[in-house]
Amino acid sequence: MDCKAIADQVYALAADGADPLGPVVKEALEVIDHCLDVHGADNVSLSFNGGKDCTVLLHLYAGAIARRLQPPETMKPIHAIYIPVPSPFQTLEDFIAEATRLYDLDLFSCGHEAPEVESIVTPAPLPAGASYVDVPKAVGKANGGEGMLQALQTYKDRFPHITAILIGTRRTDPHGAKLSHRNMTDPGWPCFERVNPIINWAYTDVWAFLRRLDVPYCTLYDEGYTSLGSTFNTFPNPALLAPEVPAATESPSAVLNDAHSEAINGHESKSKSTRYLPAYELRDGNLERSGRGSSQPQIKQ
C-alpha cells in the first residue's frame, strides 16, 4: 500500500470544502494529527477488528503518518490491537490478515479463548513470518466489558509505552452518544487516551469514503451484512433484502447468505432465492444494526 499516495488523497479531500465528505475527513485528520502531536507515533495504537469504521480509520491514519515522513524516512509498521469477538467470521479473519499485510500492521491480537479456558494467557511474540491467525488469542473466560478490560490490560502490560488508542467509534454506536473526540479510560481500567476521530461521521459517510477512495473492505458487507459481530448474533440486514430471483439466476451472494443461515440455524434456508443488497445500499443509517440479535430477524416477503 502506497501510504504517501494515501496521504495526498485524504488531505486533498479534506481541503475540498465543496465536497460533502471534505468537512468530516478534515475533522478526523485534525483529531489524528493532534493525537500524534501529543503522544508521538511510537506511542499510539489503532484498534482494528476488520469492521468498516476501523477500516476507514486505518486508511486515514496511514495517510496521516505518511504525511509526516521526511526524506529519507520510510513508513514503520503501524501499531494495532485486535480484540476478537467469540466465534468470529472466517471471512472477517481473512480480511484482517489481508489488511495487516497491505498496511504493514504490527497487529497484536488478544481476545476470547475457548470457553473451557479460564486462566489469563499472555500471547507470545509472533515468530518470524507467522500470521497472528496462527497464534493463541487468549485472555481467559470472559465476555463483554470484562473481556475488553482483560484484553486491554494484557496489551498495556505488554506495551506500557502505548498511551493512546485510535478507535472507530461513531456517535450512533452503542455507548457512543456521550463520547467526545478524546476520552480517558474509566477508573479501574488500563490507562489509555481513547481517541475517536470519526465520532461525528454518519453511516453514509463511511461508505462514501470507502467507495470513493477504493479502500479494501471485508466482503461480508457486499452480502448484506451492515454491522459485524459474532457468527451467532450477526445476520444479513433484513432492510437490504432484495426481490426474489429465479433459482437459475441465483447470485453467489445468495448462496453465501444461504450457507450462513444453514450454519446458524442448522437447517436448510426456507428460500434458496433469498439475496441481499450490499451494505452501501442502506440509506437509513438508523437501521445499521438491524441484522444484529440473538436470532435471525424474521423477513416478510
Automatic annotation (TrEMBL):
<comment type="pathway">
    <text>Cofactor biosynthesis; FAD biosynthesis; FAD from FMN: step 1/1.</text>
</comment>
<keyword id="KW-0288">FMN</keyword>
<feature type="compositionally biased region" description="Basic and acidic residues">
    <location>
        <begin position="282"/>
        <end position="291"/>
    </location>
</feature>
<feature type="region of interest" description="Disordered">
    <location>
        <begin position="282"/>
        <end position="301"/>
    </location>
</feature>
<keyword id="KW-0808">Transferase</keyword>
<dbReference type="Pfam" id="PF01507">
    <property type="entry name" value="PAPS_reduct"/>
</dbReference>
<dbReference type="GO" id="GO:0006747">
    <property type="term" value="P:FAD biosynthetic process"/>
</dbReference>
<dbReference type="GO" id="GO:0005524">
    <property type="term" value="F:ATP binding"/>
</dbReference>
<keyword id="KW-0285">Flavoprotein</keyword>
<dbReference type="InterPro" id="IPR002500">
    <property type="entry name" value="PAPS_reduct_dom"/>
</dbReference>
<dbReference type="GO" id="GO:0003919">
    <property type="term" value="F:FMN adenylyltransferase activity"/>
</dbReference>
<keyword id="KW-0548">Nucleotidyltransferase</keyword>
<keyword id="KW-0274">FAD</keyword>
<protein>
    <recommendedName>
        <fullName>FAD synthase</fullName>
        <ecNumber>2.7.7.2</ecNumber>
    </recommendedName>
</protein>
<feature type="compositionally biased region" description="Polar residues">
    <location>
        <begin position="292"/>
        <end position="301"/>
    </location>
</feature>
<keyword id="KW-0547">Nucleotide-binding</keyword>
<feature type="domain" description="Phosphoadenosine phosphosulphate reductase">
    <location>
        <begin position="44"/>
        <end position="234"/>
    </location>
</feature>
<keyword id="KW-0067">ATP-binding</keyword>
<dbReference type="InterPro" id="IPR014729">
    <property type="entry name" value="Rossmann-like_a/b/a_fold"/>
</dbReference>
